[in-house]
Amino acid sequence: MNRSGFFVGIYFVLHVLVQVMLFKQLVLFNMAFCFLYVAFILLLPLETNPLILMLVAFLLGISIDVFYDSLGLHASSLVLVAYLRNYWLGTITPQGGYDAGEGPTLAVNGVQWFMVYSLPLVFAHHFTLFFVEAGGFGIFWFTMQKVMTSLIFTMFVILFLQYFSFDRRR
Amino acid sequence: MQRLFNFFYEYRAFFTFLLLEAFCAWLLIENNKFQNTKFFNSSNRLAVNILGFSQSSREYFSLRKINEELSRENAQYKTLLERRTQNSGIPFVKNDTLVRYDFVSAKVINNSVAQFKNYITINCGEDAGIKPGMAAISIAGAVGKVKSVSEHFSVLISILNIDEQVSCVLARTSSFGTAQWDGTDPRFINLLYVPRHIQPLEGDTVVTSGYNAVFPAGIIVGIVNEVKLKEEALFYDIRVELAQDFRRLSFVKIVKSELKPELDSLERATIGIRP
C-alpha cells in the first residue's frame, strides 16, 4: 500500500467516527440529518476504478450501518452514489477536461461546478436512504421534507469543509 | 460464449452495482426478519465502546435531569414497598407477580428518535440472562422489545419504529387496540383498530394488554391526546402522547417473563404454530 492509500484509509476511519460520534447525535428539528460520509465517496480521485469505488462505498456503508442498526440501508444508497458518480463526472466535464491527478474538489474546479457535481448525487443518496427506510412512499411528503432538509444540512457541511481546506492547493 | 464474456466485461460496473445492491437488499430483508443477528449491529464490542463514549460525554451535560429522574423513581419504589408492607403485614412475600416477571436494570448506550426505524442499545446482554423477544420498560412506561443480544450488550427495537406494534388497552373502556408509530413525531404514537362503538376521550390512559406475553399487562404506554372519527371510517384515529420521553431515555428495565415458555408451549399445543 502506498502513501496516498494510507491516507485514504485514515480518511475512511475518520469519516465513520465523525459520522457516528458527532453527526448521529446532531439531528436538527428531528428532521435534518447530516450524512457527511457521502463526501468521502464524492471526493475520491477521478481515476479511481469504478469497481473499487463501489466496493469502498459498500464497505463504508456497512460500517455506518453497524452503528445505525440498519444493515444494508446506508450501504445500498452509497453504492448507488458510487455507481452514478463516474457517469455524472463524464457528463459534466468542464471545458478543457479535468486536470490530471486532481480530485473532483471545490478548490480545483470552483464552486459552481462543485455544486452541480455534488448536489444531485447527495440528493440521490438521501432520496433512496429515506424512502427505503420508510419502506415505500406511504408518508411521502414527510419523507420528502426529511430528504430536503437533510440535503441542505449535508451540503452546507460539505461546502463548509471544502472552503476550510481551500487554500492548501493554490 | 466469447461474446457473452465480452458483454459481461463491458458492463462489469453495472453488474457489480446490481450484485452489491442485491446483497444490500438481502441484508435489509434479513435484518428485518430475523431476531438474532449476532455481530453486525451496534451490540458488538467496538461499536459499543465508540457509542458508549459519545453517549457518556453527552450524558455529562444532562446529569441533573438524570439525577432527578432516578430520585423520582426511587421515591416511587419506596411508596410501593411501603404499601406492600402495610397491606400484607409481612414484607417480601413471593406472590404470583413476583414469580411471573423478573426485572433487569440496564443503561442506555445508544438511542435515536429521528429515524423511521429507531433502535436502542443497552449495556446488558446474554450474561444477564436477556434473550431476544423480552420487553423493555422504563419507570414512565413501555419502551420496546429486545431484538438481538451479544454477550454483554443488546439491541432493542424502540416502540418508535414503524414496524413495531404493541397490543394495547384503553384503561377506562377496556377496549383493545394496537399502538404503532407513524414515523413523524417522537412524542406521539397512534392507537389503531379501536372500533366506532367505543367512546374514547382525550386524557384516557393507554396501557399494554399483556396479550402477547411480551409486555406485562398494565404497563402505561401513554395518554390519549387527540381523538378523530372520519365519516365512513371503521376505526378511530387516536393520537397518544407517549408516557416515556424517548429523547431523554437513560435507564431501562428488561422484563424477563418467566412463564413465557410455558404459555407459548401451551398455546402451540392447543392452537398450533402461529404464522
Which geometry of chain A do the CA atoms define?
A: globular
Number of strands of chain B: 12
Rg over CA atoms of chain B: 22 Å
Strands of the biggest beta sheet of chain B: in what spatial order? 1-2-5-4-3-12
Structure explained in plain terms:
The complex is a heterodimer of chains A (170) and B (275). Chain A contains seven helices and no strands. Chain A is mostly helical. Chain A has one domain. Chain A is globular and about 45 Å long. The two termini of chain A are 28 Å apart. The mean pLDDT of chain A is 83. With 275 residues, chain B is an alpha+beta fold. Chain B is 32% helix and 29% strand. Chain B is built from six helices and twelve strands. In chain B, the strands form two sheets. A six-stranded antiparallel β-barrel of chain B has the order 1-2-5-4-3-12. In chain B, strand 10 (220-228) and strand 11 form a beta hairpin. Chain B is globular, with a radius of gyration of 22 Å. The interface between A and B is large, with 39 and 43 residues.
Tell me briefly what this model is:
The complex is a heterodimer of chains A (170) and B (275). In chain A, 69% of the residues lie in helices and 0% in strands.
What secondary-structure arrangement, pairings included, does this model have?
The complex is a heterodimer of chains A (170) and B (275).
Chain A: H1 3-23, H2 38-42, H3 50-68, H4 73-91, H5 106-109, H6 111-134, H7 140-164
Chain B: H1 2-10, H2 12-33, H3 45-59, H4 63-88, H5 96-100, E1 101-111, E2 117-122, E3 135-137, E4 142-149, E5 154-161, E6 165-170, E7 175-180, E8 188-192, E9 205-208, E10 220-228, E11 237-242, E12 251-257, H6 260-271
Antiparallel strand pairs in B: 1-2, 1-12, 2-5, 3-4, 3-12, 4-5, 6-7, 6-9, 7-8, 8-11, 9-10, 10-11
